[in-house]
Structure formats: C-alpha cells, structure tokens
Give the backbone structure.
Amino acid sequence: MKVRQQLQCELARREFWEYCKLMYPSFYKEDREYLKELCGALEEFYHNDDEYMIINAPPRHGKSFTATNFVEWVLGKDPTYKIMSGSYNEDLSKTFSKKVRQTIETEKIGETIVYNDIFPNTNIKYGSAEAKQMHQVRSTTLQLLRLVQQLVSVLI
C-alpha cells in the first residue's frame, strides 16, 4: 500500500468522518455539511457516556447508511463491542446486519482500499445458528449502540 493510502487509513481509524469519506467518497463529500455534522455527532456519542441518541432528519438523507457505517467503524476500533439494531421493520435490520458483515469481509482486489486495510484485526466469526448470527471475535458483553435508526415523529 502506498504511503498516502496508509495515511488515509490511519486517519480513517481515528475519525469517523474520514472513514466514511475513504470508504464511500461518492456519498460523503465535503460540501454535504449535514453528513459531516451527523458523523461528528455519532463520533462524539461514541466517546461520551450518553445512553441514547436520536437522529432526526428527512427521508433519504443517509441516516441508516451512516448508522451502518458507524457500526463498522466502531467494530474496527474495538471488535469486542456487541451491536443491537432496531428499526421499524425486520427487513431493514437484516439489511443492516448483512451490509456490516459484507463490508468487514470484503476481499482486496487491486489498489482499492477495503475495510481490512483500515481495520486488519476485525474479523467475523459465525455461530452455529441457522441464520448465521454475527458474533465478533473476542466478543465480550459490552454496551454500545444506543442508537435509534429510524425516528418517525419530528421532535420539537
């Protein structure tokens, strides 16, 4: 890997916004301030002791996509975290879990940066359950994601 890519990976390990820009540059652009603020709020949430966070934004503004990316980033920083997702329907939760697994398992082809370049120590271990429930290597019971993925009502 080139020196520039190594530096980008190091920055992505440290900052959630940089992770999102590196992994999904066509979506996370510098001129999308609302995404930058959302990423900053999620990273702040990760570092503080708050028990929950509510994300309230219009439809199609990247709430679920960013929440999924947040889980990837957090698991990369500490693979022992357990994640619980909630949504208004079962399909969204399954899609969420599947996307996280697929991103972590992505194999490198060519020069494109993949998850494992940023977080080489995070792997997926499947349990024996029929649904192949995701368990992180070295998993420990810790509380992390107190995140509401979808909020239907508008807070005033």
